[in-house]
Write a structure and sequence with these properties.
mainly beta, 3 domains, about 35% strand, Wall-associated receptor kinase galacturonan-binding domain-containing protein, signal, polysaccharide binding, WAK_GUB
Amino acid sequence: MNPKQMVLLACLYACVLILTLTTAQTNTNRTYTISKGDNITKPGCTKKCGNITVPYPFGIGSDCAFNMQFELSCNTSDDGSQKLILGINIMVYDISDTELRVENSISWRCYNSSGAVIDESLGWTRFIDSSPYSFSVLNRFTIVGCDDYGSITVPNNFEYGCNVSCTSRGDVIEGECMGKGCGQKHIPKGLKYYNTTMSSTENHTDVWSFNSCGYAFLGEADRFRFQGLPDLGDDLYASYFYDRIQASVPIVLDWAIGSLTCTQALKIENYACSENSHCIDSDTGLGGYRCSCNTGYHGNPYLNQGCQGSYNCSCPHGYTGDGKKDGRGCIAPSSKQFPWIKFSLGWCLYIPSGWNNLVLFQNQEKEID
């Protein structure tokens, strides 16, 4: 191999390496989701309920969803506001490629100065085994109070619990949730059901002057910050903590298509991934899969022609071909050439979805004797 040939091959490998590294970076920073694209619902279906976008495989109404488990309803109040509802009464705040954020369910137990329970509400939520939803590990089970034990019981009667205590106002530190007025517990992956229980050692008799209620909830960990004494409830008004959590801390649900793995789903007729997309196994341990547009495409991979391309390759003036590495490449007007080197010629413009920088490279084809 002569020096000119060696230089040509070095340039070829460098160009391929640049494109590969750039593509890897783009995959990491990709911002397109199933909710962003020209086509996100089945034809004729409603795209929004209030300000919430509803992308396929979800849908408002039976003919607009992938199946009945992805059906949502849009309820309109007397004041004209709209709420997106999952099932009978679970309000949906957001839908993403892998998750739903839904309304919280808060448990509480309140006592009088003598230690008698005067108000109590213990929450539970269950998704049937065939449901596409499970509770994400982005959630934490959180207990707030100064004389409380809270736990969630999951299938097989396994219990995840946490004790919180404090003897005075000075024990409570804003921003800390490590047992003094606030405690948190991780939950297992793939959880579909939980039931909340609460108890108190002294029924708040020793702390009743500044904390008469204990609270427990499952919610997104990154959306909750313990505010100290205000969260104990009595310094402002009784429902302050409840209202704050309801307004700002959702429950995160993981979702997936069915219970089959990608390998199994590829063999069935009702496979959900469309052209120019690929299958990704769910990591919840429950089976199921999701779809994602291939590199160079963006949009909704569950819809026919939902993944739209973002590659644009062409050849210099006078050359023929499609300019694509995996296509016909670019063919020079000269009759002397080796077909395997055709790829190295031409301009190829790679436009990653959601990325403003362009990677542009050119390589001159040389004849190899």
